Amino acid sequence: MTRVLLVDDQALIRTGFSTILETEPGIEVVGQAANGDEGVRLALELEPDVVCMDVQMPVMDGIEATRRLTAAGSAASVLILTTFDRDDFLFETLRAGASGFLLKTAEAEELIEAVQVLGRGDALLAPQVTRRVISRFAAARPEPAPTAQADPLTERERETLLWLARGLSNAEIAVEMYVSAETVKSHVSSILMKLGLRDRINAVIWAYEQGLVSPGGH
Which residue numbers delimit the HTH luxR-type domain (predicted)? Predict the structure, then answer.
């Protein structure tokens, strides 16, 4: 059972998300919060598997709430739900420890799938969000950093990382590399371990920081 906490200042949105998620067997909404401060408190108290977090909220926004959950050692995966109103803060939220992004305009099935993906311990970025994050990141860092740190990776691991940086899922990477999804999962785990990274999203950030890939490049 994937336990979910909803954090959004709009009650109507929380109710809608709750209704959608509760219809799916295997998902349980264990709590709701109207701001980031309350969300952090409930997340630490209820220990959900996934926290669906809005970005813009009173008292404490989703970025700071995510940062505090990460600092507190919460095992919950944070799914940021955004309308792009504050897309300039998306990269900062990634740094804070978010495990996924999804547009609030996504279909109900996409929300359910996103929660299931994070509930399994994977990370998720909607392709539209990936492009925006990469665009912002490139504008802030026009000169790539040296790639010396890429040395610990094998050729197949580096190839996997390049596909990750393009926003592909494990299943999609498996198709591109002609291997099984389990093999891709193994490569991703090895990449994270060797680079000392929290999750695949941070691996994507690392790839751009090191200049292994560039926006629009392969």
Answer: 146-211
Is the CB of residue 21 less than 8 Å from the CB of residue 112? yes
Q: Kindly report, residue by residue over 142-162, the tens digit of the pLDDT.
A: 444 444 454 688 999 999 998
d(CA 7, CA 85): 17
- Residue 174: pLDDT band by 50, 70, 90 thresholds? very high
Architecture category of domain 2-137 in CATH: 3-Layer(aba) Sandwich (3.40)
Strands (E) in the chain, as ranges, are 2-7, 27-33, 50-54, 77-82, 100-103, 124-125
- The pTM score is 0.72
Query: Quick one: pLDDT at residue 145?
Result: 47
**pLDDT tens readout for residues 29-68:** 999 999 999 999 999 999 999 999 998 899 999 999 999 9
User: Could you tell me which of 88, 83, 50 has the C-alpha nearest to residue 66?
Assistant: 50
Mean pLDDT computed over every residue of the chain:
83
> If you ran DSSP here, which 8-state letter would residue 66 be given?
H
Write out the two tokens for 140.
Answer: 């802030």
What is the residue extent of each domain of the chain?
2-137, 144-209
